[in-house]
């Protein structure tokens, strides 16, 4: 709805501004009221502008000498621009039409006078014969020149055709030679590409062999890492100490006394866990000392860890 209203307003404004009487009124109003325009665009404060413009409008009165009581207000502000615009749009076209008709009438009279003057000119028979002979001569010379030009054009066309055929032949030969040269170059490039393909296949085989070797080495490295991790494992370490001891037994106090700090606590917790799993058992030796003995279940467990 808003767009339709905007379009309607634009169409109305365009119709008003395109009207000749409206545009002529605006132009004449700007000319007749140039003082108001200058005041409007001046650098004065708005209140002074309004005051000066009202002062100019208040003085815009037409006084008629023999009619002292009759005054025409807004003479320059409205009536003169309106009169000029009406004159421009209504009367001026008729005046221009009348003037144009007068001008056309003068042109026609001038043409008629010129024609009458030329018609009264008399030619003698000798002058007519001389003119006719000159016309015949000019006609013959023109025909001769045309024939000569036609023959010259045919000759030039033949030369151009022969030159074109020769150039096409030379161009074809040059193209064939150039094509053979490029064919030889392409064949050489194709051979180079085949050699590169063979080299690539050989390098690919070598790469696959190297990759297989690396995979094997990585597998061995992983196995070695797993074994090292098992050896580093605290459980494996404790069981290894039992395996390496005399009679698969260790004194509790002597074994724990080997360690200090946090590692000592870890060893104590590991020994308790191994006892709970029945991998080791607590006993007393002949001197009533507390010892730990590796059980058969613990030996099999150690074998499984080291497998």
Protein model, in words:
With 307 residues, the chain is mainly α. It has 10 helices and 5 strands, in the order H-H-H-H-E-E-H-H-H-E-H-H-E-E-H. It has helices at residues 2-17, 20-32, 34-40, 46-58, 75-119, 125-232, 234-244, 252-256, 261-276, 296-306, and strands spanning 61-64, 67-73, 249-251, 280-284, 290-294. Helix 7 crosses helix 10 (296-306). It starts with a helix and ends with a helix.
Please summarize what this structure is.
The protein is mostly helical and 307 residues long. Helix content is 80%, strand content 8%. Helix 3 packs antiparallel against helix 4 and helix 7 packs across helix 10 (296-306).
The largest pleated sheet is described as:
3 strands, antiparallel
The helix content, as a percent range, equals over 70%
Overall form = elongated
Count of DSSP-assigned helices: 10
CA-atom Rg in angstroms: 63 Å
Q: What is the H/E string?
A: HHHHEEHHHEHHEEH
In the sheet with the most strands, the strands line up as 3-5-4
Query: What are the segments in which pLDDT stays under 50 over at least 5 consecutive residues?
Result: none
Number of strands: 5
Strand content: 5-15%
Mean pLDDT: 78
Termini gap: 90 Å
Category from helices, strands and their pairing:
mainly alpha
């Amino acid at each position: 709805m808003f767009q339709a209203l905007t379009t309607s307003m634009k169409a109305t404004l365009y119709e008003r501004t395109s009207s000749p009487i409206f545009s002529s009124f605006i132009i004449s109003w700007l000319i007749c009221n140039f003082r108001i325009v200058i005041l409007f665009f001046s650098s004065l404060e708005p209140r002074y502008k309004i005051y000066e413009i009202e002062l100019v409008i208040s003085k815009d009165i037409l006084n008629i000498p023999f009619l002292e009581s009759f005054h025409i207000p807004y003479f320059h502000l409205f009536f003169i621009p309106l009169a000029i615009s009406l004159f421009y749009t209504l009367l001026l076209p008729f005046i221009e039409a009348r003037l144009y008709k007068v001008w056309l009438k003068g042109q026609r009279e001038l043409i008629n006078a010129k024609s009458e003057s030329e018609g009264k000119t008399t030619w003698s028979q000798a002058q007519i014969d001389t003119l006719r002979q000159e016309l015949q001569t000019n006609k013959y010379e023109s025909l001769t020149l045309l024939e000569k030009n036609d023959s010259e054009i045919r000759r030039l066309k033949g030369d151009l055709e022969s030159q074109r055929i020769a150039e096409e032949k030379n161009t074809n030969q040059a193209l064939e030679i150039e094509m053979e040269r490029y064919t030889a170059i392409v064949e050489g490039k194709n051979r180079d590409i085949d050699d590169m393909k063979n080299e690539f296949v050989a390098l690919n085989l070598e790469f696959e062999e190297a990759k297989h070797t690396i995979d094997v080495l990585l597998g061995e490295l992983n196995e070695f890492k797993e074994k090292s991790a098992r050896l580093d494992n605290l459980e494996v370490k404790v069981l290894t100490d039992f395996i390496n001891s005399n009679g698969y037994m260790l004194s509790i106090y002597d074994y724990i006394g080997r360690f200090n700090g946090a590692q000592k606590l870890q060893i104590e917790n590991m020994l308790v866990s191994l006892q709970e799993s029945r991998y080791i058992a607590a006993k007393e030796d002949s001197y009533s000392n507390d010892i730990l003995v590796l059980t058969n279940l613990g030996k099999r467990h150690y074998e499984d860890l080291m497998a």
